[in-house]
């Protein structure tokens, strides 16, 4: 089955009138100002993004790391075979069996496993023992027995890693709520392979792949004009195809192609805070996160964080007695207590009485008294936080499009992640941002074709394992 691109995402319904008291209106105006990014400002952000991309291509250790993925050249569509994929770094751990059948066709079977918070923040050895057990039980569950041959596995590891080969790299840092000890500076492939060996699990980790690289590959499998893969999910990042001649920092010797996929790690963009419109509510989130001062762009645009930004805004309104008559609840007072999925429900809510918004606030968040004005204020806040995220996402896409000169010829961009897939009007808001960023290209949304790339971490990792095999055949030393 080819990847699904048809989906029905609810539309966001924006409200313009709050109908509050003068102090409420004044505070809402202040919040609107803090979150609004004008077209001119969006252009400024995009230009800075582009110049940071170039820095990352020229030298090591730049804010946007621009990590060569060691995936050389493009897919042919002829990639076939059975591969395992392991996906760590999204909401769940997943083991996937992928049967590549060529030309964008494939079947998958997968099992999800919950990674507890203690595993996410404990000793990395415990995490890898757990993963090895999951792979072992997956093989049993699916009756996978390859005789004496090891099963090839593509490992989607969705954290920053400096790669040195297609199946080698050193972990740079953790993101998205993971913070295990004993992992930084180590090779995730070796840690996984050792844990598998100890348990005699017959699996060979043949490719290490970032989820964005996997997304690019899985999209390219059926759409050969793909030149980028992006995740707007729990975290955010992008990968795109770059000319070797533009990767000035490359010291990896001759390659089998004049192009390579770059894992940008753009979540770290503007950690220096030169250009991003960081508000006090973003600062509060950052300060209280487990990785302060890091991944600032990611924290403004990703599913893990949007609810928390909105919660910080709402609590300030409560503290000023401008919302819920000054009352909060245990849920609203708790870090991460206002989930991004609540924002989705609230953004999609329509009609005068905003029933769904009222239900979320009174039933899910246990706020004692909720008025219609309160509902409208909360809806406005969600709209502002969600719209800013999508517009910043557009700046990143525009940066990639400009760097890879894909506007003239047109290109497909595969996108995966819960925000892109489910958040109301996220895609339309990105498209609006692109229209503003390319005023001279009237059909920009036909030239830069965004589309859902389902299961980049599974199918993409399998494709990467397949590419690794082909590259090894072409160049025996790899
Ligand atoms: C990680 C990236 C990953 C992205 C999306 C970020 O936190 O640093 O490696 O691609 O999340 O999962």
> Largest sheet, if any?
6 strands, mixed
User: How big a fraction of the residues is strand?
Assistant: 15-25%
Report the radius of gyration as a whole number of Å.
23 Å
Summed up, the helix count is 18
In the CATH scheme, what's the topology name of the domain at 74-222 and 457-470?
A: Nucleotidyltransferase, domain 5
Ligand kinds = beta-D-glucopyranose
Keywords: ATP-binding, Glycolysis, Kinase, Nucleotide-binding, Transferase
Pathway: Carbohydrate degradation; glycolysis; D-glyceraldehyde 3-phosphate and glycerone phosphate from D-glucose: step 1/4; Carbohydrate metabolism; hexose metabolism
GO molecular function: ATP binding; D-glucose binding; fructokinase activity; glucokinase activity
Family: Belongs to the hexokinase family.
